[in-house]
């Protein structure tokens, strides 16, 4: 009988997508290996962080999830953790795109400190692993993954009007809004379409762009996303976006919906151009991908089916569970 070991994941957002897709998704697989997963909140208040440090002391291993803690807390956590890993899925040494995607001296110092203090580093993609390497430690790439629903692909919505989808949050809405020119060009061409935006905020577009705003909810997002014909995943190209892990691409492909995505970062690997969707290198090629999917329903459905199969093989929880379990086993050894 395998003895039970405790892995404590420290996070500032216990219910957020990072923990949900990078740790909770593997809870059953880890349990089969005798590893009990505990998600521990890391609050802003230093006094309230005592509980998190107590749980770190009690665990066989600790994962700090995508959080840059101050240098004093790095030292306190290192003293209490028997084995410590740092897991991150954003380009943490940089400010985000809205602040110029420029390097931050404070963020870089904190990033280097937690990387140096860790026994293992898990990065969401190769670009992020390179940042860990620059900080002095080799990282294991563990991509963000999704569950692929069983059974047949849910058929596209009926009718001639295309529903184009996007899913995300208020933080990433500007990436979609930046494609306003392409969407306005579709309107001007006389194309009939609807843009379904599944998010916790509403986008701002020029008049005439037909937007259907659908509030994001953990219990309904999947059903709402199956109500599209294909999806969009636009990104600017900067150090912050190169660190993105492509969750929205995987969510759409896993449901059998092809994607038009910017050729930025990991999205270049997630979308097989011409086979599971289209990659755009500029506004013109991005619009061209949209038109191809609007005008050829048969090809669109074929690309969607191929996309779901590709995600199942290369980007799913089931595909990565053995490697995630092995990485945790090595941490706890």
Description:
By secondary structure, the chain is an alpha/beta fold. It is 41% helix and 18% strand. It has helices at residues 17-22, 27-32, 49-58, 71-80, 105-117, 126-134, 173-177, 180-188, 221-225, 239-242, 247-254, 267-270, 283-295, 297-314, 317-332, and strands spanning 5-11, 35-41, 61-65, 84-88, 120-123, 140-141, 162-167, 193-199, 211-215, 230-233, 259-262, 277-280. The strands form 2 sheets. It has a 6-stranded parallel sheet, sandwiched between helices. Helix 12 (267-270) links the parallel strand 11 and strand 12. Helix 4 (71-80) runs parallel beside helix 5 (105-117) and helix 8 (180-188) crosses helix 13 (283-295). The longest helix has 18 residues, at 297-314. The two termini are 17 Å apart. The mean pLDDT is 96.
Q: What is the overall pLDDT average? A: 96
Provide the number of structural domains. 2
- Flag low-confidence runs: none
CATH topology of the largest domain: the name is: Rossmann fold
CATH class of the largest domain: Alpha Beta
Helix content: 40-55%
Major sheet summary line: 6 strands, parallel
Query: If classified by CATH, what would the architecture of the largest domain be?
Result: 3-Layer(aba) Sandwich
Topology:
Blueprint: E1 5-11, H1 17-22, H2 27-32, E2 35-41, H3 49-58, E3 61-65, H4 71-80, E4 84-88, H5 105-117, E5 120-123, H6 126-134, E6 140-141, E7 162-167, H7 173-177, H8 180-188, E8 193-199, E9 211-215, H9 221-225, E10 230-233, H10 239-242, H11 247-254, E11 259-262, H12 267-270, E12 277-280, H13 283-295, H14 297-314, H15 317-332
Parallel strand pairs: 1-2, 1-3, 3-4, 4-5, 5-6, 7-8, 7-10, 8-9, 10-11, 11-12
């Amino acid at each position: 009988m395998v003895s039970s070991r405790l892995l404590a994941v420290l996070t500032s957002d216990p219910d957020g997508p990072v923990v949900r897709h990078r740790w909770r998704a593997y809870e059953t697989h880890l349990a089969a290996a005798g590893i009990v997963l505990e998600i521990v909140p890391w609050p802003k208040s230093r006094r309230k962080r005592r509980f998190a440090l107590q749980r770190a002391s009690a665990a066989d291993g600790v994962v700090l999830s995508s959080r840059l803690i101050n240098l004093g807390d790095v030292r306190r956590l290192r003293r209490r953790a028997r084995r410590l890993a740092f897991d991150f899925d954003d380009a943490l040494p940089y400010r985000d795109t809205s602040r110029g995607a420029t390097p931050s001296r404070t963020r870089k110092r904190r990033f280097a400190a937690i990387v140096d203090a860790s026994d293992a580093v898990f990065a969401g993609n190769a670009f992020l692993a390179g940042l860990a390497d620059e900080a002095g430690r080799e990282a294991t790439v563990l991509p963000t993954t999704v569950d692929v629903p069983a059974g047949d692909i849910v058929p596209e919505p009926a009718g001639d009007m295309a529903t184009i989808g996007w899913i995300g949050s208020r933080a990433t809405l500007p990436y979609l809004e930046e494609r306003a020119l392409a969407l306005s060009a579709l309107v001007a061409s006389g194309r009939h379409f609807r843009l379904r935006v599944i998010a916790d905020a509403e986008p701002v577009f020029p008049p005439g762009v037909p937007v259907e705003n659908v509030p994001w909810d953990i219990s309904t997002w999947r059903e709402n996303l199956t109500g599209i014909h294909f999806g969009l995943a636009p990104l600017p190209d900067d150090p912050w976006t190169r660190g993105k892990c492509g969750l929205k691409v995987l969510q759409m492909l896993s449901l059998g919906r092809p994607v038009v995505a910017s050729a930025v970062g990991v999205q270049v690997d997630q979308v097989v151009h011409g086979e599971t969707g289209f990659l755009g290198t500029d506004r013109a090629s991005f619009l061209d991908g949209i038109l191809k999917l609007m005008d050829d329903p048969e090809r669109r459905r074929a690309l969607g089916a191929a996309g779901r199969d590709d995600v199942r093989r290369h980007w799913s929880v089931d595909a990565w569970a053995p490697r995630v379990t092995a990485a945790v086993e090595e941490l706890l050894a």
